[in-house]
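Changelog note: in this version the structure field was regenerated for every chain. One regenerated record is shown below for reference.
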Amino acid sequence: MLELNRDVVDIAEARRWAGSALPQLHEDDLLDVQLIVTELVSNVYDHGEFPARLTLRTPRDAVRIEVEDSSTIPPVLKPSSPHSARGRGLVLVDQLAREWGVTEQPSGKAVWAVVPRTDGV
């Protein structure tokens, strides 16, 4: 688990942590995981509340990325425009993940995504 610090927005740290937590993952799968980590963690800094944390779980055929924060407001998947400077994060998550969603929690929410593993491990 990686605790996210409200004072330091370091998305690169979250990506590096994901890479070090999943050394056995095939490079293509790791890139998908790291992109989703980037988007979900960025959403916490842009729209969430602290405390917040990032967790990775590895069931046999997938990686489950989960970002918890203290806000109860769920993210909304909106169509993106080629002219928009931002707003494509959940579109990317939706395209890369086998499934994704939001789970209400007593102290906020968890936004999660499941990325299939192609390495067959």
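Spot check on this record: The helical segments are 11-21, 27-47, 89-96. The radius of gyration is 14 Å.
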